[in-house]
Amino acid sequence: MEDVANAAQAILIIGSNTTEQHPVFGTMLRRAVNKRGLKIVVADPRKIDITEFAVLHLQQKPGTDIALLNGLMYIILEKGWEDKTFIEERCEGFDEFKETVMQYPPEKAAAITGIPMEKLYLAAEILSVNRPSAVIWAMGITQHITGVRNVMSLANLQMLLGNMGKPGSGVNPLRGQNNVQGACDMGGLPNVYPAYQSVTNPEAQKMFQEAWGATAPLKVGLTVTEMIPNLADGSVKALYILGEDPVMSDPDTNHIRHCLDSAEFIVLEEIFPTETSPYADVLLPGVSFAEKTGTFTNTERRVQMVHKAIEPLGDARPDWWIIAEVAKRMVEGGGRQIASGKYAGWEYPDTSSIMAEINALTPSYGGITHARLEHGKGLQWPCTNADHPGTPILHTKQFSRGRGKFMPIDHVSPAELPDDEYPMFLNTGRVLYHYHGGEMTRRASGLMAVYSQPLVEVNPDDAATLGISGTKRVKISSRRGSIEAEAWVTDRVPPGMVYANFHFPEASANELTIAALDPIAKIPEYKICAVKVELCE
Questions:
Q1: Is 391 within a domain?
Q2: Which domain covers residue 433, as residue numbers?
Q3: Which of 317, 350, 380 is the C-terminal boundary of a domain?
Q4: Burial class (CB in 10 A: 0-12, 13-18, 19+), 330
Q5: Within the chain, which residues score under 50 in pLDDT?
Q6: Rounded to the nearest 10 degrees, what angle do helices 117-129 and 65-79 cross at?
Q7: Rg of the Cα atoms in the chain
């Protein structure tokens, strides 16, 4: 992300609480504002901390990102600020896309989003005049039933402005955890092998069949948001859960508990006991980052080396070793021979041997070896061979599909909107002092001293209506459950919306969230549901 922090003239941050959830990169952006005048436009329903460094805050209604982006692109086309040369030489589908965008004049975009027209014009001008400009987004964009469409809209905006394939530009997703990118790269998705080679591609299947001796059928598998609900009807019978705490991190916690109760068998591999642990039949002790050697791939596709700092404690073992040993015992227990194939034996003396297999089967990682990673700041894929320097910036000459394709995207309302019974929006996320389900950070006394309990952000206008004064406890209810927590009366949230986190099991926001899924990515709509707020007796 250094090229964005150093070269971008303007940045649109949308769906990302950057300084609280990605504080290192957030610090880089604050420094760029102070030292070289970087112009930041923030689009977020909440008044998050980074707005203090922004030239403009667009406070859209929850779930209206597409209408906002279409409104900005209408203005860009109206003013003639689009990059005509880039569109002509690098893109396709422009006319159909334009036809859709022109249905979102500023008056309509303002009515849907709640953003004044003058702010829409100002945002479009800032991003158009100050180029290259970058887009930064995170789970505030993806965790909607329109998550895929939201991302496509951001790509439309950046292609329209020619902000692709150059320093300080692009669409830049900030990953939620430190190795999400690496897990996806290695095939931790139901539709691809490593390096995003489709499981429905017979040629890809043949290559992995020859390498591993066996592989899955030519069909897409299930996502976690499909697997866990399927436990309830018996179509999925067992789970192997590694480093995940679905009781804390999945939506509609009451239903998640029911599903886990319905499973015939659950294996949980973890470094600490979690809220999911009581549902496990077998607990396997993994090791923390400080107890293992290997690589992490960060949000900018940079693969970096990690070395074991201490020996594993107790009976804990590295995850790769545990998985290999379980696999070998499954083969032996089934009375079968290990399939023939160059990499079929599950015999890995160390992580460098695993990386050698990755080099052979994952083209974008072909030149990323442990030996090379010992020097410098890591390598960014694609890095196809031992002499390749890595690829800091993608799409410099063309897109992976050739021409970039504009997509006509219309606004779609969230799955659940406020009504008379549940009149307020709930927005969810993290806070600076805690991380995801909180199983690690709640064990840190220093962090707990600063942020020791769940807090729910309530706007002063709503607090006055409810009769909240000071820090009184409130009950927040949705159609799926209720929690009680202290109210933090603050203008960080707009009237009609409350904000809660999912770090504390005694009052997790996911007791309330809805399991409505994006139809393509199957990501839940964590960011929006309808709730009512009441004072506790």
A1: no
A2: 424-535
A3: 380
A4: exposed
A5: none
A6: 60
A7: 24
